[in-house]
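Input record (one chain):
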Amino acid sequence: MTLLDGKKTSEVIQDEIAAEVAQIKANGGKTPHLAAVLVGNDGGSVTYVNNKVLTCERIGFGSSLIRYEDTVTEEELLNKIKELNEDEGVDGFIVQLPLPKHINSNKVIEAIDPKKDVDGFHPTNVGRMVAGLPAYLPATPAGILELLKRYNIETLGKHCVVIGRSNIVGTPMSILMSKCSYPGESTVTICHRNTVNLAHHTRQADILIVAVGKPGLVTADMVKEGAVVIDVGTTRVPDASRKSGFRLRGDVDFENVAEKCSYITPVPGGVGPLTIAMLMMNTLKAAKKEVYS
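The corresponding structure, as predicted from the sequence alone:
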């Protein structure tokens, strides 16, 4: 079994981006700038956004963090998005999800200029991805592709089973794994909460990608020998032995599943760090106008 080390891979990618940014600055070019909008005080979201800001500092990006209380109105948030769309100093920006229930997330996503949509959630970028045109890919699926690529994992003709159909991970992941490129060229099955006999499908997977947020959902009897397992789940579960009072647990029962796998991601330290690295990659592309010239 080989551990797919997302933390180490992320650091390598960040070093590559930092070197390119240093070269851009040396040539008199503009410093890439990422802005993040954070609404409320959700612990996971705050940590995630703070990590993004720290990563920007590490690789030489400019960054700005705009914070609102969870009582902010939809109109006020949409006005800020319009302002960021028009700000030539900002190359890309994200609005951290989830948003409070009184704010329509789809309306917010659609208000973002596709050229600055470095999360890759805008319908224009999703459509371009499906059509095989240059696009900002959603960061988590892009990170998984990068992990498969850098570990030289064969995907051609493999059966890939994706559990979860969210617009953030599951659905784009299923599309990308079926694309005529590497990583890709796989036969894809997508499973969800209404799938009958889930284990029947997962036991056929050469590559199993799980993104549902249900700790320990995938057990050893659901995985075939030699499978590649990618665990996207990161759920906080109580743990009195930890100073924080919790620990992160994935959707896969790692301890028992790992011994059956050829490759597997840990939680934490697997997919999570790559999500931030690929967000930075999208921001660099935005600054270079690689996707939308």
